[in-house]
UniProtKB/TrEMBL annotation:
Residues 1-21 form the signal peptide. The keyword Cytoplasm does not apply. Coiled coil: none annotated. It is a multi-pass membrane protein. Keywords: Membrane, Signal, Transmembrane, Transmembrane helix. This is LHPL6 protein. Its main location: membrane. It holds the Pfam family L_HMGIC_fpl. The chain crosses the membrane at residues 87-109. The gene is Lhfpl6. PANTHER family: LHFPL TETRASPAN SUBFAMILY MEMBER 6 PROTEIN, LIPOMA HMGIC FUSION PARTNER-LIKE PROTEIN. It comes from the Eukaryota.
Length: 139
């Protein structure tokens, strides 16, 4: 297997993959905010939540659903800002994953990644990281 990457490029490819994987796992996990409600431990992320209150119309009271799951629809995400955060963070994770997988393919295929392609990939990776980090920190 010939590679189109230098030693530094191979290290970049593997670190990129690890960072993209960590970003995607962080995006999909519902543990961004932790707290308690109705004496139960609750947590939620951009599009997943654990232990959330639901109105039980038959008993006319609010009960806690003690399971993790996605919101029923995009509109069920609590606020417009939270929806924007979901889209931007998801876009950032997608860009990071795209660059990382392309870089890993460059480890196996010769002449796949040139100097120009590497620079463009670095720019895309910067944009993906900026989207993931800024939205994840609420900026």
């Amino acid at each position: 297997m010939a590679s189109s990457l230098t030693c530094a490029g191979i290290v970049w490819a593997f670190l990129s993959f690890l960072c993209a994987a960590a970003s995607c796992v962080g995006f999909f996990m519902p543990y961004w905010l932790l707290g308690s409600q109705l004496e139960k431990s609750v947590s939620f992320g951009t599009f997943r939540r654990c232990s959330y209150p639901v109105r039980d119309e038959s008993r006319q009271m609010t009960v806690m659903v003690e399971q993790c799951g996605r919101y029923a629809s995009f509109q069920a995400i609590p606020s417009a800002e939270w929806r924007i955060c979901t889209v931007v963070t998801g876009l950032g994770c997608g860009l990071l994953l795209l660059v990382a997988l392309t870089a890993l393919m460059g480890c196996c295929v010769s002449e796949l990644i040139s100097r120009t392609v590497g620079r463009v990939a670095g720019g895309i990776q910067f944009l993906g990281g900026k989207c993931s980090c800024d939205e994840g920190m609420g900026m």
